[in-house]
Each structure stands twice: as structure tokens, then as C-alpha cells.
Fold WW domain-containing protein.
Amino acid sequence: MQIIRVAFAAAAFMRMYEQRSQVSSSQHRSAVGKSARTTTSTASTSREFSIQQSMRESTIGVLQIYKKQCKRDGDFRGARETNTRIGRLKQEHAIAKREGMILRHAEELHNLQRTIRSQIYAYFTEWETRKLSSLKMAVDEIRKALSRRQQREREDFIEGLENGRVKYRVTLPPLTLDLMAKARYMVLQDRHEEAKQLMLEAEERELERKLKEHARQQGKLARIRNEFDARQLRERRMTEDKIRRMKEEVLKHQRLELEELRSRAQQQLDAPLLVVSFGQKYSGPNSNKYKIEGKYDIPVNYKAIVKWGEDEIVVLTRQGPFGPEFQLIYLPKSSVADDFTLFEWNSNMTQLWDELLTVLETMDEGGTRDMSVFNQGPWYIFGFTEDAVQTELGKVVKKDETDDLVDGILYCQEGDKPTLEEYQRYLGVQPELDDHFIWISHEFMSEPLPANYYQYTNAGMVYWVDASTQESTWKHPHYDKYKKMLSVAREQRPLPHWKTIMNFQIELLFSELFKMDDPNKTDFDVPIETVNNVFELARIFKVNIKEEPYLTHVLKRALRHYAGIVKSKRAVGDVEEFRNLMQRYRDIVQQFERAYELESEQVASLRQCVECPEDNKEPAELRSFTVTTAKICFASHALTGFIPKDGDNIINGLGSSSASAQSAKRRWLSSIAFNAKTLSVTRVSSRTDSFGSRCFAELRPLSQVHVRGGRRNHVPIVLRSFSPSVHKVPASSTFAFGAISPAAVTIGANAASNLAISMSPWLVFEDECEINVYYNLLTGECQRDLPLAPINTSIESGIGGGFSYGWAESLTCT
């Protein structure tokens, strides 16, 4: 009986609760509608909902106890009815909780709108009091400065006219001079009347000419004044247009800020969304991968938090090697700090979304939480398609036009060498704005790395290793130089022509060298002809000084020339002249090469067998044997030829033993020890080495002490066959076949030595103490000691034509 009474009491309580719930739901709807207008009613409605919620929970508890009692007593029908009522009460309880949440959101929105209104009012007040007044003052100052400038120019022009700065050259016409000469002749013959008539006519002509000249001057002055007035009018119009554009920009900025505030006030989502970082809009290659439905942009470095009840879902984005990548973090409300679910970075948002829904369904086993909010998909839930997010991305892109966003990593999608587009993206080049500066990316891509740097690729990302320190870096060794070049090019806007580009790079080189950006810089005494500057100028002129080391002297001359120009703040030019000078150097070195080849052919033609027939000469093989006391050179079966001591002629052969005996006092014809293609002039008797004239000149100071003789361990005696004062050594071989004197052939030419000097990789530089330093272009070796190899010096004016000698001039030796 007690159980029946409890059941009847519960049923009565349920009926009373249903009636009260209907009344409370109607009151709740009216409260939700009026929540935006009054805050007091919202608070009272919230208190009523809390009371109703506690009543529902108590009723559900009583009904659950009654259901258990019915099951124990076997009253299954009552248990089913009670279970049905419990389910309906739970559903109503969930609906009431959702409506309470909506009520709280309405209250928060009302507070936000009130805050935004106060911010808008404060912003307009500040703009009217500060910015508008400063703008008006700036416009007035511009107008005053323009009027003062126009007045000063007018006064200077009038003063110049008054002081006689504008002078006109006046000369008498020939006809007037003839009349005056005739009048003078008439006076000499006492024909005064005729002379007077001629002078009157001359005066009339001169007066007419002066009137015309005065009219011409007046017309010119009027034309100058008209031009001056027209220029003033143009400047005034330009100033007015500038002021109008400034006003339009201020109004546009104001309108955009108002739209932003309104969009933030009107922004509503089915689930609460907090955008921590809007990120940036992607503007590189393959931009279609960063689009949603072809119209919404997927931001990079985007971060937002979505509230689901008391739980939170965090979404992150980043730029991956092949497209956008996403990461999700689910943070349920829990007292345990490690109670969260982390989803790894993935480029497939659909897969991440499915994994998230699986986790959420697992967490909501009882089905009491509302999952319908996730039916709109990830792009809408996470705010990617919201107008506020897309508008903010557009503003970030406009800001990035001046402040370049650089990822800091050079990506390489295919192979181990990045493409031009990847270099542009790494450097921060914007194709739609920097179309004329594509050459900067080409230069950045083609310039070789320093000698101690090596490039590697890992997972589509490029990094560099310094071999000297074994340190790796994501930053290209030349990144700062080309980033600075791009920034200066955006300011100066050089034309895409090779002369203009070279002038721009040269000016940038010396501006960085002299630090022209510093207004307090007055000392320009810095080293100019350094190794780094020579290599940089060679890169600008597109020359390879490792293959053409003689062009280094032209580059040094160009460094001195352009340093003076930049110091005096003049425009850089004369690029074509230095290119012509380089071509002149190339022509001279090619002349040395041709002369060296010609000399080699002449030497080979002289070294022939003397016993062979004239029409079938064979090359001689030098051999030595003792005839009396002399060493004689033979071919395979004959002698090659001899040079007499006095150098009169060449004996082309010997046919008998008497000739062999006569040749005992002669010196045999051979090549020098350092060059097999040049004939020897001198010979060391104690050795088998032979020397040319230049080699002997270099060795002679060492052996002057022992000219008269020496002991076995001393420097050997140097025997001289010819006198350098009688036979002058030419710079190149200019003699022809068939008319060659023995002395000229034996002396040869300096073409080989000149060619060796021009192609030598060793060059002389000066350090900060003006001490010579020898640098090797091929190996990068630097030393203070004089190397044994030839030193590359500048071509003299009298060698190979030089720069002051013409091509038609030649040096002959007979």
C-alpha cells in the first residue's frame, strides 16, 4: 500500500510538473526574445530555469526509484510507463539546458554589442580630435610651402631678367654693313650728299631690325611666362589631387574599420568559436590546394578554439611541402592534466574529421550530448568559411605587400635542385608586383656557393653546411645580399635592361661598401681592390676570372673608377667601355697564343734531319757523342744542324768526317730546359740544360760572381751565344718562313712568357697595411711570400699592341 501511495504521489507530481513546464517554456521563449533589450529579465529567467532544472532532476530520481520498485513487484506495465515518462523528462531536461545555453549566449552578445558601441564612439571621438586636425594642418602646410616655392621662383626669374642674365647676341646684317662701307667710300671722294643718303638708309634698316628683335624678345618672354604659369597650374593640380587621394584613403580606412567592427558584432556560429590567430594567406605556387570550393582561402598558421559544451576542440594549420596541413586537439573537461586527444598533422582534413567524430561518439556513450552541431562539416565549424576570417586574411595580404613574409626554408619538391619559383618564394618575390625583378631570382639561383659551403636536401627542404665549422643552417649564404637587392630594387625600380641592371648592381655594391645609407658617414677610406670585390664585380660583368685571369686588371680599374663616381654621388655608367676594354685584353692574349703557336712551328721546322732529301725531311732525334772534345747532336743517321759561335749562319748538315771534325768547336741547336718549343740561346757547359734569353736574364744575377769560372760545387758557368744588345727580343714572332736569320730564329720571341704571365692564376693584392698579398684564383690560396710561378701583371702599352699601340703596328726582326 505504501508503494501505491508513492506511485500516486509521483503521478500527481508529474502532472503538476507538466503543467508548470508548459508555463515555464512559454515564459522562457518570451525571455529569450527580450534578452537583447533587458538584462534584469534575463537574470530572473535564468534563476527560474535553475529552479525548474532542480525540480526535473528530483522528479527523475523519484520515478527511477518507482521504476525499480515496479520491477521488483512484477508490475512491468507500470515500469514501462514510468520509463517512458523518465525518457520524456530527460528529453525536456536536455531541451531546457540547450535553451539555457542560448539564453547565456544572448546575454554575452548583448554585453559585446554594448562594448562595441562604446569602442566605436571612443574611436570616432579620438579621430575627430587628433587625426582630423593633424590632417588639416598637414594640408595647410603643403599649400603654404607650394605658394612660397612659386613666389620664390617668380622672384628669381624676374631678378634674372633685370640683372641682364638673359642676353641676346646682336649682330649687324651684311646689307647694312655694305651700305656703311659705301658711305665711307663716298666721304673719301667728297661725295657727302650720297654718303648722307646711304647712312640714312642704313639707319632705317638698323632701326627696323631692332624693332623686329625687340618684338622677338617680347614674344619669347611672353612664351616663357606662359610656360611658367602652365607649370604652376600643373603643380597646383597635382597637389590638389594628392590631397584628394589622401582624403579618400582616410575615408576608405575608416569604412573598412567600421565594416570590421560590424562583422565582429554580427558574427554568430552554432558553436562558440574563438580565433586565436588568423594566420596569413598563401600566395606561392599551387595556390589551388589552399582553396575551399574554389572561393574560400585556407589560412596558414591559423589557430582557433571551438567550444562543445564544457569541452574544447583546437584546430591548427601550417604550410606543408605539398599543400596545407591540419592538426586537431580534443580537450575534455577533466581534472587530469593529461586527459586530451592529439591528432597528428595531416593534409587530409576529411580523415581528421572522421577520427574526431569517432572520439566524440565514444565520449558520449549515453547519447545525452547534442551531436547535430557537427553536421555542418569541419570548414564551417572551425570558421574557415566565415566572412570575418576571409576579410582578415585579405588585410594580412595587403600588409605583406610591404612586409614580406618569408617562410625561412627553401623547399625542393622535385630532385635535389630547387626551381626558380621555389627560389622566388624563398626570397619573398611577389610575381604580380615584382615581375620586372625576375633577374634577381636568376642571379640568386645561378651564383655559386662559397668554397666552404655545401648544399643538401632532406624531406623536400634545403639546408647548407659550413665545412670549416661543421655547422648546418636553413639560411642561404647569399640570402641577405639578394634580400637587400630586392628591397632596394623595389624602391629604385630599375628597368629590365642589361645596362641598367649592371649599373644598379654596381651602385648597390659600393653603397654597401661605403655605407651610403648612414647620413653621418664621412670617411670613405675603405679597401677597394680586394679579392671579394673583384669576384663580385666579375659576377656583375658575367666574366669567369678563373678561366680568364688577365681580366682581373680590368676589374681593378673598374673598381677604382666606380668608387670615385659613387663617392661624388654621380650616376653609375660606362659599363660598355669596360666591356670593350675586356674584349681588347682578350684580343691581345689571343695574339700571344697565335704568336706562340707560330714560334713552335718555326722551331719544329728547323729541327730536321740534314741527311734526308730536301723533299722528304724527317724530324731529327737529338743524340750526343764525343767528337774530339765537343758534344754533337745527330738525327737517327745524321746531324741536325749547328750554330756557329758568332751566329752568322746555320749549317744544315755534314756529309763527311771532316765536317764532323770542323764542328767540334760549334754548339748544337736544342730547346731550352723549361720549354721544349723554344730554341736555346745559352747553355751551361757543366750541365746538359739549355736556356733561352729570358731564362738566362733571370738566372744571370745569381751567376755574375762566377762568370770567370768556379769550382765543382759552385754555380756553373753560363755560356752566352748572342748579345742581347745586338739582337732585340720581340714580343711576338713576326718573321716569315724563308727569310729567317739564324739569330732571329734562335732568339725567338717573348710570346711564351707573355702568355704565361697573362694566364697565371697568381695576382697581387694589398692588405689594409698596404703590404703585397699573393692570391691564387684557382685554389684560393693566399700568401705573403713571392710564389715561384709567374705573377699575373697588367699588359704593358708596348707589348702585343697594348692599349696605346694600333693593330697595324708590328715589330719585325731581320
